[in-house]
């Protein structure tokens, strides 16, 4: 064999070797096929029926595009109005990611530093120990930064930061910086949009206000369960808008927000990465919350998510899986998307809805179904107990209509009206309308997981107002048997806010 041939073969062999050593390009996540989505569709409908959710809307996005959406059941049972992917719901704590984006845009503009003390922006805080970052990550209690405890009422105080740093009204920011540019036509910046039409038209513009009013007309009616575990109409009890609560939207509209996030239309890449980086204690312990979002590793995947929970009214789930370019959005007109699963601790795996998505669509190993089944069984058992023991003791309080704009401010509830009088006097002198700024700041929407501030102050024995992450568990922990009658009774409720942080006075 000639050397030239040998050389040629050597070249061939060498070339083949070089090709073999080239790094493989990562495969792009595959779009879920119709069979997998159909399996999830069946699972959703089954769970909705099992948990007696009157109306449910769902959407799946892949690579920033909605690939599937539909509605189940009824947005209005009495009038047989079907739930669709365009049906608006109160999204509850899904308002937090939107509020977080607005705040982080101010950080990008140099108007806010996450390590600023909250006292720089809010008169509810004294001293420098609690920073903006602590409130964003739910770590303001105890030693700031060292302990995670979900509290939507505290998160709502970021209203003060955003309004003061931007010099704009929070509702106007949501409407003109988020909803209008993203084309969120089935949404509303607050559920009280129709209450003061002249002011809203002046603030938002006639065309935008008309769209928001129409969205509120189409709002899914909320439902709760009666003593026979049947869904019966409930009533909205919280009105207004804050970074913690109050957004009204549909799954398709929220998918527009999700797509804008992924395409970099809302935040710089570095800011978005920071937003989804879990908080850590000084000792390096990873916490389950980042900046306005839960973050979690599960089955080899990085999950970014938030849920919403308005007891007896609405619930929501927003799950992003960047590794697979997938997003799931669920909205319901009862609380059963959240109430059985104790999600405020930062673990999504007990959620039967998230589990169905992970198993059927994402195709991960089924290690969550047994936990979600146990959660549903426990919830059903506890709910039966609550129905027969707790709710009859409450009379009609669960249906009382509480309007935040007519509720006493924090200072009034503490017996200190001087700060309110000073702010009102300053507003009057400057000709400033307080509908969306000072008044909304003092009377912001209540939060979730049983810590609704207005209910909490005015209905101290209502189980929705007790302080914890799960309605039914709290109600059980706060009952005991009367020593004389052996009848279960509710214990007096302590004020959670007294112990949240020592320098918030």
Summarize this, please?
The protein is an alpha+beta fold. The chain has helices at 3-21, 34-50, 95-108, 132-136, 152-155, 158-166, 170-182, 197-204, 206-217, 251-262, 269-275, 352-362, 369-389, 410-413, 418-430, 438-442, 453-458, 471-477; strands at residues 55-62, 65-76, 81-82, 89-90, 223-225, 231-233, 248-249, 294-298, 301-310, 314-321, 326-332, 479-481, 488-490.
* Percent in helix: 25-40%
**Beta-strand content:** 5-15%
Which spans of ≥5 residues are poorly predicted at pLDDT below 50? 1-26, 387-505
> How many E-type strands?
13
Global morphology: globular
Q: How many DSSP helices?
A: 18
Average pLDDT for all residues: 77
* Strand arrangement in the largest pleated sheet: 3-2-1-11-10-9-8
Largest sheet: 7 strands, antiparallel
Structural class, from helix and strand content? Answer: alpha+beta
End-to-end Cα distance, whole Å, is 93 Å
